[in-house]
């Protein structure tokens, strides 16, 4: 059987652009190439699309003005049947051949590949793609909509106040915006749409609140203010139905250094970690998130708490008809034992493979990605009802 | 010889896996892979003499001597279907063992195994030519060894420089030994895994082993080198081994 051709997409105009590169390269190296033929497609911060083996070398980022020979600029073409990639600069005499592929493997974080936008592009192009469909991705990436959904499902979430950045105003008084925040201090302020703990702060006074909101408005048009959870511990779990019935991974308690995990803590702690001795920096093991010490199935969780986390994660995932293997993050006040659903990451860093490696039964990274890719084809298959078969809907007869 | 037995869910697992590490490594390099098979097989990890927690041998052993020690260990255990899984140098020992003690070994997985002649570039040959002569010169006039110019040349491979005098002799012995004939005597099923980007044990070695061994299967891991096969490539390797073990059952 011929191997299916899989384009691994990463990058995009996102605050999590760089992490997406790491996740993409990491995925390419563990996808089972006896089953799938993989190639990279990188979208840079200026929305240029690139392909070629040169993208596999971490040392080539950010791309230089003059590209190495093995990196080619491509255009994504619609309007000619199924979407395809067209190399931009061909030879002098002949245009380079279009690149068709069987499925898009999405390794994006944040805009626009985790939010449903890129998913929509793939739907229009008629190309199977991995992970959540448009709606689920879009809802999960909106913290407030996710919380509203949780409330209807009986899943506890913290109360919140959403603050909007004034439109068309270069100058505004932040006090006018924060004056309606009626939650007691301390509070937690974060951007509504961004993940990866970007610009998340704990504030204890009105002044700190104002400055935190300004910080968020530099990155996002909406800020979300929630009560700060005292004695905070985070618990994350991944949920999927790529193995049949919806199932959950191990629960992890990520390491924390400060009161709140911030971006630097999450991703820079490991630095450019070298793998096993002798690994070249370009091919060094990208441990990223994984290099942080973490605890699996932590003992302090009671049976009841565990069951709550697992059942809430599954309930939300099923209600939203999720795909792929999103990671769902919970907050816990360790003194009172209260739990709240925090947020959902449709495409978690490193695909949260470490949660599945520690799941019962164990699933290794390669198997996880194989199942995620196979689900892309299964999902596309569900929609492949041919237009022509719906005779009753036809107004214009075939000539 | 230091050996580690992994805990497993049951004592009655029908298969025994013995893991042999590469040069300069210890059992720890293979531990994450072995742990993947913790519940499906009995797992022993070995520190070969002179590596990890095993003391250095008194005399420079040959890879065949290592194979004898391995056989002593295997025969000290209750009989059970035994599969050797090796990385790099461990593969030399396993090939020797499988050729000499065919009844002890049911199958082998050789990851990035050396043992056949590596084709070298012209540049490498020229460098080696001069280095060899320079080494002879140093042997005759040991005092020039301390010259900064000579020191900066970094004579010998990194493995060689990092090794003790005895281990250096072992390294030289093993590197110079061609295992073609031994490979032809390996009758058990063998899975040969090589990283496509491996420069230490290039993947063509695997293809040649496949031709020499009567019952061998060759598989290449794209985008992986001599070391990443144990790290970021580990899940790929796990799946290959898993499928292989299912086939030989």
Feature tags:
heterodimer; A: about 400 residues; alpha+beta; Rossmann fold; D-amino Acid Aminotransferase, Chain A, domain 1; Dna Ligase, domain 1; 3 domains; six-stranded mixed sheet; 10 helices; 15 strands; about 20% strand; B: about 250 residues; alpha/beta; 2 domains; seven-stranded mixed sheet; about 15% strand
Walk me through the structure.
Chain A is an alpha+beta fold and 399 residues long. Chain A has helices spanning 17-30, 117-125, 134-140, 143-153, 174-178, 206-217, 263-268, 303-319, 353-357, 365-382; strands at 4-11, 36-43, 49-51, 72-77, 84-87, 103-106, 161-164, 187-191, 201-203, 222-227, 232-240, 247-254, 294-296, 327-333, 339-345. Helices cover 26% and strands 21% of the residues of chain A. Chain A has a six-stranded mixed sheet with strand order 5-4-3-2-1-6. In chain A, strands 13-12-11-14-15 form a five-stranded antiparallel sheet. In chain A, strand 1, helix 1 (17-30) and strand 2 form a beta-alpha-beta unit. Chain B is α/β, with parallel strands linked by helices. Chain B has two domains: 2-119 and 177-248, Alpha/Beta hydrolase fold, catalytic domain (Rossmann fold); 122-168, no CATH class. Chain B is 41% helix and 16% strand. A seven-stranded mixed sheet of chain B has the order 1-3-2-4-5-6-7, with helices on both faces. In chain B, helix 2 (63-76) crosses helix 3. Chain B is globular. Chain B starts with a strand and ends with a helix. The relative contact order of chain B is 0.15. The model of chain B has no long low-confidence stretch (mean pLDDT 92).
In round numbers, the mean pLDDT of chain A is 88
Class from secondary-structure proportions of chain A: alpha+beta
Element-level helix/strand string of chain B: EEHEHEHEHHHHHEHEH
Tally of DSSP helical segments of chain A:
10
- Name of the top-level CATH class of the largest domain in chain B: Alpha Beta
Order of strands, main sheet of chain A, comes to 5-4-3-2-1-6
How far is it from the N-terminal to the C-terminal residue of chain B, by CA? Answer: 29 Å
Q: What is the gyration radius of chain A calculated from CA atoms?
A: 22 Å
């Amino acid at each position: 059987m011929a191997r299916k051709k899989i384009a691994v997409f990463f990058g995009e105009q996102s605050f999590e652009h760089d992490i997406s590169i790491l996740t993409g390269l990491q995925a390419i190296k563990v996808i089972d190439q006896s089953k799938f033929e993989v190639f990279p497609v990188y979208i840079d911060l200026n929305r240029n699309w690139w392909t070629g083996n040169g993208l596999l070398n971490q040392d080539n980022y950010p791309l230089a003005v003059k590209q190495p020979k093995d990196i080619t600029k491509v255009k994504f073409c619609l309007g000619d049947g199924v979407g395809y990639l067209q190399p931009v600069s061909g030879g002098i005499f002949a245009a380079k051949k279009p690149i068709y592929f069987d499925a898009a493997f999405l390794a994006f974080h944040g805009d626009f590949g985790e939010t449903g936008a890129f998913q929509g592009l793939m739907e229009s192009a008629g190309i199977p793609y991995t992970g959540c469909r448009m709606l689920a991705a879009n809802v999960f990436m909106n913290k407030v909509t996710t919380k509203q959904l949780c409330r209807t499902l009986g899943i506890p979430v913290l109360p919140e106040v959403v603050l909007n950045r004034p439109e068309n105003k270069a100058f505004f008084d932040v006090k006018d915006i924060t004056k309606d925040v009626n939650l007691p201090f301390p509070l937690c302020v974060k951007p509504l749409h961004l993940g990866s703990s970007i610009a998340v702060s704990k504030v204890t006074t009105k002044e700190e609140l104002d400055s935190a909101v300004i910080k968020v408005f530099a990155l996002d048009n909406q800020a979300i203010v929630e009560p700060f959870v005292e004695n905070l511990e985070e618990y994350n779990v991944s949920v999927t139905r790529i193995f049949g019935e919806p199932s959950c991974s191990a629960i992890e308690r990520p390491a924390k250094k400060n009161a709140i995990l911030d971006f630097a803590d999450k991703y820079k702690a490991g630095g450019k970690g070298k793998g096993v001795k002798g690994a070249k920096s370009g091919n060094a093991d990208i441990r990223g998130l994984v290099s942080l010490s973490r605890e699996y199935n932590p003992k302090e969780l009671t049976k009841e708490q565990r069951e709550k986390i697992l059942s809430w994660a599954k309930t939300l995932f099923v209600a939203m008809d999720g795909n792929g293997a999103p990671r769902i993050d919970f907050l816990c006040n360790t003194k009172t034992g209260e739990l709240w659903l925090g947020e959902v990451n449709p495409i978690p860093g490193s695909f949260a493979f470490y949660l599945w490696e520690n799941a019962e039964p164990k699933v290794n990274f390669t198997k996880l990605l194989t199942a995620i890719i196979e689900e892309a084809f299964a999902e596309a298959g569900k929609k492949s009802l041919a237009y022509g078969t719906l005779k009753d809907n036809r107004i214009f007869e075939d000539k | 010889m230091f050996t580690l037995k992994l805990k497993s869910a049951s004592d009655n697992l029908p298969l025994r896996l013995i893991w042999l590490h590469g040069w300069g490594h210890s059992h720890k390099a293979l531990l994450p892979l072995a742990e993947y098979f913790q519940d499906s097989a009995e797992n022993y990890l070995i520190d070969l003499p002179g590596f990890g927690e095993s003391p250095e041998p008194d005399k420079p052993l040959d890879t065949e001597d290592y194979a004898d020690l391995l056989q002593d260990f295997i025969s000290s255990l209750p009989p059970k279907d035994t599969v050797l899984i090796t990385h790099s140098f461990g593969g030399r020992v396993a090939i020797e063992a499988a050729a000499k003690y065919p009844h002890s070994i049911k199958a082998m997985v050789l990851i990035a195994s050396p043992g056949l002649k590596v084709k070298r570039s012209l540049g490498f040959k020229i460098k080696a030519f001069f280095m060899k002569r320079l080494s002879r010169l140093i042997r005759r006039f040991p005092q020039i060894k301390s010259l900064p110019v000579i020191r900066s040349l970094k004579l010998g491979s990194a493995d060689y420089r990092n090794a003790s005098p005895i281990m250096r002799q072992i390294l030289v012995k093993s590197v110079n030994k061609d295992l073609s004939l031994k490979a032809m005597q390996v009758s058990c099923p063998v899975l040969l895994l090589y990283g496509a980007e491996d420069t230490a044990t290039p993947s063509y070695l695997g293809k040649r082993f496949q031709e020499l061994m009567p019952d061998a299967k060759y598989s290449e891991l794209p985008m992986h080198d001599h070391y990443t096969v144990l790290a970021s490539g580990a899940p790929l390797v796990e799946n290959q081994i898993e499928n292989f073990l299912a086939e030989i059952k």
